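Box 4.2: Ligand-aware structure prediction
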Amino acid sequence: MLKNRSIVSIDDIGDNELDDIFKATDEMSNALKQGKVLKLLDGMVMATFFYEPSTRTRLSFESAMHRLGGSVISVSEAKSSSVSKGETLADTVRMAEGYADIIVIRHPMEGAAKLASRFSSKPIINAGDGSGQHPTQTILDLYTIKRELGEINGKEITIVGDLRYGRTVHSLLLALTKFDVSINLVSPEILKVPDHILSRLPKGIKMKVANDLDSVMEHTDVLYVTRIQKERFSDQTEYQSVIGSYSIDMEAVSKMKEDSIIMHPLPRVDEIAPDVDSSPKAAYFRQAGNGVPVRMALVSMILGGK
Ligand code: NCD
């Protein structure tokens, strides 16, 4: 199955593999709840290269590896590594494969993880490549929907915010085409889903571009909110023009249906008001919590510990 494979794009996960990943995630989650000490990857080493800021993704990968009995070596900024001396990504990866069994990489350049995978005989996991993709986030997003609502099929999913630069949105959209869902896209005009992603969505997909959130809130099952990706704008006046475009407050939440949920890959800036956190609909911290068991499942399946 996933053994020895890289995950650089959500397309690297086959349609029939998600169920196995979810099953393994449930097992990991139960083991964690019972406080079991797992030794599945005893003696194995993960190398993490985070050339862009990260809190959740990095900590959950590292926690996952430790909880599987493995260990982690890491570089957190280009400044402290040989990248600052002009080393290419290809050379960094060729060196790292001698030190570790699996390599997790976050990089500002779209396509970086794919490039790295070409030079590595060890599996590469894309933890976010610029505005490209963030496949493991998508797996945990899908797992969260399934866990919170019981099903992914049949749901109406509204994705709001930065659909242009948000890599979590790109991977999620591509993954959702494999389910029978309705998708609403809500964003400022300049932050629409890029054509290179739209052109990859099947023709028959139930998707509409909504002009405002109000028109879709009442029938939405999953409201997937994203941060406007300030760091990706080359023109800061463009950023200023869309800043604070959406803010989900309790009044907006009160219009949502009974069993609906609000998700966010986090970090949030001002797109969800803090008082929404106490609503049972606020699933984003539970979503972040799923990051550890999902990544435990993925890493153990790739490294054959399970
Ligand atoms: C996201 C990312 O880095 O793409 N965060 C995450 O991994 N949980 C979303 C974001 O930074 O807005």
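In the box above, the bound molecule is N-carbamoyl-L-aspartate. The first strand starts at residue 45 and ends at 50.
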